[in-house]
């Protein structure tokens, strides 16, 4: 998606969006892990755990950036 397609030119909004979607996906992946475990597919369950961990790390990185931007001139309107 090119810059401006969201209607917002705000890095904080973008970080919040990525964080939200990463956390939401992590919730969904929990079900995928259970489904793979129930099917006896440890290899696939492990893959889903890995994907879930990557999204968790992504959400944490967004959180860290948002803390850094909070209260700064760079925060944009989402954190003002």
Describe this protein's structure:
By secondary structure, this protein is mainly alpha-helical. It has a domain at 26-69. 70% of the residues lie in helices and 0% in strands. The protein has 2 helices and no strands. The protein has helices spanning 11-38, 42-69. Helix 1 runs antiparallel to helix 2 (42-69). The longest helix has 28 residues, at 11-38. It is elongated. The model has no long low-confidence stretch (mean pLDDT 86).
Topology:
Layout: H1 11-38, H2 42-69
Helix pairs in contact: 1-2
Q: Any low-confidence stretches, pLDDT <50, length ≥5? A: none
Largest sheet: none
How do the helices and strands follow one another from N- to C-terminus? HH
What is the alpha-carbon Rg in Å?
Answer: 16 Å
- Would you tell me the overall average pLDDT? 86
Content of β-strand? under 5%
How would you describe the shape? elongated
Question: What structural class results from the helix and strand content?
Answer: mainly alpha
N- and C-termini, Cα separation = 25 Å
The beta-strand count equals: 0
Helix content: over 70%
Number of contiguous helices: 2
Which terms summarize this structure?
2 helices, 80 residues, mainly alpha, single chain, elongated
Q: Brief overview, please?
A:
The chain has two helices and no strands.
